[in-house]
Amino acid sequence: MDAFVDEAVPPKIRISADEISNKTIPAFSESQLLARAKDLGSLNKPYKSYIGMGYHCAVVPPVILRNVIENPQWYTPYTPYQPEIAQGRLESLVNFQTMVMSLTSMDIANASLLDEATAAAEGMVMSYVSSGYRKRKFLVDVGVLPQTLAVLRTRAKGFNIDLVVADALSAIEDDMLRKDLCGVLVQYPDVNGHIKDFSTFAESVHAAGALVVCATDLLALTMIKPPGEWGADIVLGNSGRFGVPSGYGGPHGAFFAVTEKLKRKMPGRLVGRSRDATGKPAYRLALQTREQHIRREKATSNICTSQALLANMAAMYAVYHGPIGLRRIAHKVHGFAQVFKDSVESFGYDVVNATFFDTITVKVSNAKELHDVSITAGINLRHIDDHNVGVTFDESVTSNNLVDLINVFATASSSSPVSLQQLREPDAPAIPSSLERTSEFLPHQVFNKHHSETEMLRYINHLVSKDVGLVHSMIPLGSCTMKLNSTSSMIPLTWEEYSCIHPFVPFDQVQGYHTIIKELEQDLARITGFHSTSLQPNSGAAGEYAGLSVIRAYHESRGESARDICLIPLSAHGTNPASAVMAGLKVVSVKVQDDGNLDIEDLRSKAEKHKDKLAAFMITYPSTFGVFEDGVQEACKIIHDNGGQVYLDGANLNAQIGLTNPATCGGDVCHMNLHKTFAIPHGGGGPGVGPICVAEHLSPFLPSHPVMPLGEKAINAVSAGPFGSSSIHLISWAYIKMLGGQGLSNATKIALLNANYMASRLSGHYNLRYKNVNGRVAHELLIDLVEFDKKAGLKVMDFAKRLQDYGFHPPTCSWPLSTCMLIEPTESETLEEIDRFCDAMIQIRKEAEDVISGVQPKDNNVLKNAPHPMHVLTLPDTEWNRPYTRHTAAYPLPYLEEKKFWPTVSRIDDAYGDLNLICDCPSVEELATT
Ligand SMILES: *Cc1c(COP(=O)(O)O)cnc(C)c1O
């Protein structure tokens, strides 16, 4: 093994085996780890939180808890780029989009963004872009959540947008502001609970030629007039209270909806409806393959991984409860707020907000005293200032909780405590009639028929049975690293002591979480060779953005803010240039040689040419071609010599751990994709965690957060949660702890070995695009299929779709080169599974040969017609006009007779960018009846 590793990894970048060993990262058994997680969980105090500010303690229906978030069939699949084997989650994401469109009354919604704060930032940037990059002022109402404002500040910087924070209703009268205004963000209801009427305001924003962006709450929208009915152009928020655990900050699915005229500018993924080759309706991602087509330096958003799993949970919650159930929950929450308000008023308190849905702001003489009483009662209230406290209700609050809460205010005002029997039901909702919702919502059948647990269970399982995940077979996606994670690493995150914690609770209530966060930060710093870590970014792309913003802040601190050039190789992932642009950098591309290696001379000449303005160089290592480049340290030195900083894209870090590290390679900052390298499952397109590690000189600049402020050099927040999606940090923490240093290093070696084994089994059948001087690849391999196109018109997609018939999710297709497949087995696959995949690839190669030699025609063959769903195979004999048997189509290798996964539709047209395919509210039953 060691001799092999020496052939694969250049000696000059190797680190000593002691650096990542069981001495530096001790190993735990599964049972030890679970015991430790239990112990640490008991340090998180189970206080009842009424903090609000966009986060709620959600009640997860058990049928969704067990069958979605705890179900590997839902949490292990990849982003649905292969729609034929992803119809289940595509349908569920359409449910999510439909739910958002219906509740907000907007024309179109996407399939989730990372969190509410970054969604607001996307809304701000869309407003700026819509003004033709001409109007620089963006007005933010004072009622917006503080964490949203912090993220807006960070994001505004890169685009040079001028944020104006004011009372929006009056500020909009200012003509100076109106002249240069691109958009406005309002919170509805606002952070203090007010529900303001924005309809005339929206007219005057539009009259100024600007957009209205509205952050809102889906549950409130069941009772209050939806923003789409009073003129909002962009509506966004967090869908977490629809049955997604709060998890000390996440993950949650943010939603984002726009009017028809803005749909082409909308960030993120969108599911639309198309047809398969037989004319059967089917779903697919509408703006196909975002990250491959992400518009590089022309991009205005870098969204790749989003929050698919959590969006699916929220959609299922709406399917389960339906419009009537949602309204009932909303009435309960609102009713509790009313009872609370009446009670505290009877104690002599003043309530600040005349209108409210679930949030009440109470004036108090001494907020500290009141908080002391509430903490003693095990209750967290929102800290506003010395004279105001906030109380927000959610579905989880019971009537006994309500009594306890009211009695905190009774005690603090020396009133006599109340009992449950003394509380009086409110007469009618307290929402002003002009702001009441009168329109229907969620009329679609899917939201009106799965309301018994039995039906719900069947619906969840019906959908997921259409999708290939790691529960079926390996998903050999190069760069995206689909490793199966252990069940033991998943178990703690739905434990109450981790799942039901508000992100803004006092520090001393989350000692368990903080021990885990600290340990994970330290382990990641050790693994990367860097000094410190920020866990805040919610995806790899968000990490890139954070890291580049840190580099900018560093240059600025040295009086070098003019440094704004970012060198990026042409082979880079599309998010790299997109993130650079968002951080206010100008992208200059660097050439790549045919063998995938960086063109060092081109790099040198460009670095020297831009010497005075060079900010950063972004490099992926091993490269996107699956290569450990020899020249990485030299490349980094060139950058440093010319005053730049090196950003290492760590998506491929799983090929480095224990053998080398980004610091040794010459980097200053790197991100990791914990949802690739550190075993967080992909969730069908998210959640992700994209932490950054930085060298010591950059650590003062790591992102801060309004509720967890860091030093004065720190950049503003990049995510809504101070530690991003805290609950899933547990997974990577557990993965690292259970492998220990030795296991982590072994995992890397086995990942390299598996890729090289595969390269050698496929050689002679396929053309391997690159190997190093020793004939070795790194952890993935790039095979070029161009010959089949030349000889027989067979494209990469034909091979990919045929692999579905063999029960496999195809490898990464047409990236980083359009004629190639990038294959990555990972360390978690067995020899048997790798052989099964290779057997399939080799058999397909034979089938391709039949097309080349003319045995099967070029336009009607087993590859072009793939995949083969049952309804095609069971066509009457008269319609089966194919030059191969049904048996060959379905069972080309013996293992399939025993283990067959059936795609549910035939090939879906992958044509890119036809926006007419986007759902105009397609419903499931419409599909069923078509
Ligand atoms: C996956 C990936 C990214 C983007 O990460 P997300 O978490 O999807 O945002 C960036 N670079 C490379 C090389 C990747 O493979």
TrEMBL record:
<comment type="function">
    <text>The glycine cleavage system catalyzes the degradation of glycine.</text>
</comment>
<keyword id="KW-0496">Mitochondrion</keyword>
<keyword id="KW-0663">Pyridoxal phosphate</keyword>
<dbReference type="GO" id="GO:0004375">
    <property type="term" value="F:glycine dehydrogenase (decarboxylating) activity"/>
</dbReference>
<dbReference type="GO" id="GO:0016594">
    <property type="term" value="F:glycine binding"/>
</dbReference>
<dbReference type="GO" id="GO:0005960">
    <property type="term" value="C:glycine cleavage complex"/>
</dbReference>
<feature type="domain" description="Glycine cleavage system P-protein N-terminal">
    <location>
        <begin position="445"/>
        <end position="703"/>
    </location>
</feature>
<dbReference type="InterPro" id="IPR049316">
    <property type="entry name" value="GDC-P_C"/>
</dbReference>
<dbReference type="InterPro" id="IPR003437">
    <property type="entry name" value="GcvP"/>
</dbReference>
<feature type="modified residue" description="N6-(pyridoxal phosphate)lysine">
    <location>
        <position position="676"/>
    </location>
</feature>
<comment type="subunit">
    <text>The glycine cleavage system is composed of four proteins: P, T, L and H.</text>
</comment>
<dbReference type="GO" id="GO:0005739">
    <property type="term" value="C:mitochondrion"/>
</dbReference>
<dbReference type="Pfam" id="PF21478">
    <property type="entry name" value="GcvP2_C"/>
</dbReference>
<dbReference type="Pfam" id="PF02347">
    <property type="entry name" value="GDC-P"/>
</dbReference>
<dbReference type="GO" id="GO:0030170">
    <property type="term" value="F:pyridoxal phosphate binding"/>
</dbReference>
<keyword id="KW-0809">Transit peptide</keyword>
<dbReference type="InterPro" id="IPR015422">
    <property type="entry name" value="PyrdxlP-dep_Trfase_small"/>
</dbReference>
<dbReference type="InterPro" id="IPR020581">
    <property type="entry name" value="GDC_P"/>
</dbReference>
<protein>
    <recommendedName>
        <fullName>Glycine cleavage system P protein</fullName>
        <ecNumber>1.4.4.2</ecNumber>
    </recommendedName>
</protein>
<dbReference type="InterPro" id="IPR049315">
    <property type="entry name" value="GDC-P_N"/>
</dbReference>
<comment type="similarity">
    <text>Belongs to the GcvP family.</text>
</comment>
<feature type="domain" description="Glycine cleavage system P-protein N-terminal">
    <location>
        <begin position="1"/>
        <end position="409"/>
    </location>
</feature>
<feature type="domain" description="Glycine dehydrogenase C-terminal">
    <location>
        <begin position="747"/>
        <end position="868"/>
    </location>
</feature>
<dbReference type="GO" id="GO:0019464">
    <property type="term" value="P:glycine decarboxylation via glycine cleavage system"/>
</dbReference>
<dbReference type="InterPro" id="IPR015421">
    <property type="entry name" value="PyrdxlP-dep_Trfase_major"/>
</dbReference>
<dbReference type="InterPro" id="IPR015424">
    <property type="entry name" value="PyrdxlP-dep_Trfase"/>
</dbReference>
<keyword id="KW-0560">Oxidoreductase</keyword>
